[in-house]
Amino acid sequence: MDNTHSNTPIADDKTLIGVSSNKTSAPVNLIGKCLKDRYLIESLIGSGGMSDIYRAKDLHLESAGINEPYVAIKVLLQQFSSIPEAKQILIKEAKKTQQLSHPNIIRVYDVDSHDNFHFIIMEWLDGETLDQVIKRSKPMGLPFKGANNLIQQIGAALIYAHKMGIVHTDLKPSNIILTRQGNIKIFDFGVASALQLNFDQYAIQNNDLSSPLSGFTPAYASFEQLEGKAPCPADDIFAFSCIIYELLSCKHPYQRIAANKVDLTKAPLKKPNHLNWFLWPSLKKGLAIHKEQRCDTIQKIINDFSRVVWPKALTAAAAIIIAAATFQVYQTQQNEIKNLNALLTLNDNEQGKLNAFKNLSTVELLAQLDNIPTEQRLLKQGLLREHRQSIINIAEKRIMNVSKDPSGIYKNYDQVDLIIADALNVFPDSVRLNQLKSEATKPHSYS
Question: Does pTM top 0.70 for this prediction?
Answer without folding.
Answer: no
